[in-house]
Design goal:
The protein is an alpha/beta fold. Helix content is 21%, strand content 28%. Helix 1 runs parallel beside helix 3.
Length: 592
């Protein structure tokens, strides 16, 4: 085994929280080394430091940072290697790197072990500051085999994209080491939690805090478990956050304790073959209408709603009455309504119930649902159990005044549903409606970030998501001392992490999430927005509440030749690095 240590199945890890002073490299190194030594003395075998921890972050240009960059390996990594040798530990050091052979600078992290340098990762998904001085990383997304398991590294904005963490997981990573300088958001960030949850990996987030050149950093360094839960955290101030890693738990990759290893094996690469396309490199208004084929629908302001209700098990007639009653209570301006997964039939608890309640494809209840849509002049999305031959699906239908417009069968059934629910074979449908371009997903599809991304790449303005069981619960976070500006929440936040909100923001889409209330679902239905700023106007229902969340959405281009609204511009998609993403389309993850 490389690294000079016996393999460890369980061990202590540490995230170092630290505020460097810009340009005070030697002073920063002395303080940082002291914190790393403290973590090692307290038993940590893997220690992660913040992004750019040795120098500070907010540099004007190459000339200003030039005196502080150095090669890897080099003098700084050797000082940390001495600590690693003395304590038999591994250390991840965030620092600015220069490649001696080219003079090119990078925002990098070095993995150092008892025998010296193990490897280097160069940040691949740049924030606004890196292009002032640093090249995008060109070493890919490596995973290193060590006595502590398989380790991968992400740096800061890499975690705003699902792809880097997923690529590490597909290469067998057990632990995601995450040096960061996170800002503008209360931390531990919901994006960090999503990266841990969707990949079944531990995530060790070492953040800085404090204010540098007017930029307020978030703190909130943490050790996150493979289900996205916070194992340990530090709000603000210099310090060491200790946690524990179990490689057996990381390698389980299950959505629920004792479940099958679904987080990677239930992927559907046959549906992900657009993920390597750079669809937002060009003006989206031109790209999506190239050759006159399927231009984006005209942008406009409209109103959509997500209804949270508990259907009567096995009674479509009663459920249609409940749906009709909910529609009658809606404001007149609502144009599209999303109801929960299994809204027409109720959610089955056993295979026998699923077979008994499932509706044939051309069932009367679907026609009656379309009749409700026609009478109100509205578009409706609702879930149902569907029977096709000998197979049963969790399906969703989109109906409007024109009748049935689309039907989708869930592609990613997980957990107990797998005992009776067949995975759908077709891509999620995309339909152009007056409110915009709409894509359909169902419940546990949200656990697989690839499928929402594929819809966003097709130009979807809105994802309509009837939801039910097998989703991670919303997670709260208490008050934080970091003085963040709105729309960040610094007080008590009962819905800090919501997977549907993460999917909306990372894909610059609106997302109408209509859930079954607890205990059949997670509740917390809402219409989420395409950027964090939309959070200020969210209406999120309670976990067991019955009701409706109504939201105005805007897909208008404000008469611009280039889209000016986030949902059409999709800046996050424009900044993807799809030349790195080939592995996402591979039918099977490599054996590890």
């Amino acid at each position: 085994m490389p690294g000079g240590l016996e393999p460890l199945e369980r061990y202590v890890v540490a995230a170092v929280q630290f505020e460097p002073e810009l340009g005070e490299k030697e002073a920063n190194l002395r303080r940082l080394l002291a914190l790393v030594e403290e973590a090692a003395r307290r038993g940590a075998r893997l220690i992660v430091t913040p992004e750019m921890a040795t120098t500070g972050y907010c540099w004007y240009d190459r000339e200003e940072i030039r005196p502080y960059v150095e090669p890897i390996p080099g003098p700084t990594t050797e000082r940390f290697a001495q600590v690693a040798r003395a304590h038999g530990c591994y250390i991840v050091v965030g620092m600015p790197e220069v490649a001696p052979e080219t003079g090119i600078f990078y925002n990098s992290a070095a993995l150092i072990g008892p025998e010296g340098l193990v490897g280097v990762y160069r940040k691949t998904h740049s924030y606004i500051s890196e292009p002032k001085w640093a090249k995008d990383g060109d070493l890919g997304l490596p995973v290193w085999e060590t006595p502590l398991g398989r380790l991968g590294i992400l740096i800061c904005m890499d975690a705003d994209y699902f792809e880097p963490a997923r690529l590490l997981a597909l290469q067998g990573a057990d632990v995601l080491c995450f040096p960061t300088n996170w800002l503008e958001e209360k931390s531990p960030s919901a994006a960090w939690m999503a990266r841990a949850f969707e990949n079944g990996c531990y995530l060790i987030a070492a953040d800085r805090y404090g204010c540098e050149r007017g930029v307020q950093f978030s703190g909130g360094s943490a050790v996150l478990d493979p289900d996205g839960a916070i194992q340990a955290m530090l709000d603000t101030g210099d310090g060491v956050v200790l946690g524990e890693v179990s490689l057996a738990r990381a390698r389980e990759k299950a959505f629920s304790p004792g479940g099958p290893p679904e987080k990677l094996r239930a992927r559907r690469p046959d549906l992900y073959d657009t993920l390597t396309l750079n669809a937002y490199l060009w003006n989206p208004l031109r790209f999506h209408g190239l050759y006159g084929h399927r231009p984006l629908p005209p942008g406009r302001r409209s109103t959509v709603a997500a209804v949270q209700l508990a259907p009567v098990p096995g009674d479509p007639s009663a459920n249609l009455r409940a749906i009709a009653g909910a529609i009658e209570e809606l404001p007149a301006e609502v144009e599209l309504v999303v109801f929960p997964e299994y809204a027409l039939t109720g959610p089955p608890g056993r295979r026998e119930e699923a077979r008994r309640w499932a509706l044939p494809g051309s069932s009367g209840p679907v026609a009656e649902l379309a009749g409700l849509a026609a009478r109100r002049g509205i578009y409706l999305v609702a879930g149902l159990l569907e029977r096709v031959g000998d197979e049963i699906y969790s399906s969703a239908v989109l109906v409007g005044p024109e009748g049935e417009l689309a039907r989708y069968r869930k592609a990613h059934p997980i957990g107990p549903e797998r005992a009776w629910c067949a995975p759908g074979r077709s891509r999620p449908p995309v339909v152009d409606l007056p409110p915009g371009r709409v894509g359909l997903l169902l419940g546990s599809d949200l656990c697989f970030p690839e499928i929402a991304r594929a819809l966003a790449l097709e130009g979807c303005d809105l994802l309509a998501v009837p939801a039910g069981p097998n989703l991670p619960p919303a997670r709260g976070l208490g008050p934080t001392a970091v003085p963040l500006e709105p729309p960040a929440v610094t007080g008590e936040d009962p819905v800090h992490f919501h997977l549907a909100r993460v999917r909306a923001i990372e894909n610059n889409c609106y997302l109408a999430f209509a859930s079954l209330p607890a205990p059949a679902g997670i509740g917390h239905s809402a219409v989420f927005g395409p950027t964090a700023t939309f959070r200020a106007s969210e209406v999120v229902l309670g976990p067991d509440e019955r009701g409706v969340a109504v939201r105005a959405i805007d897909t208008s281009n404000l008469e611009s030749e280039y889209p000016t609204c986030a949902v059409r511009a999709k800046d996050y998609l424009r900044m993807r690095q799809p030349h790195l993403y080939d592995l996402l389309q591979v039918a099977e993850p490599p054996a590890v």
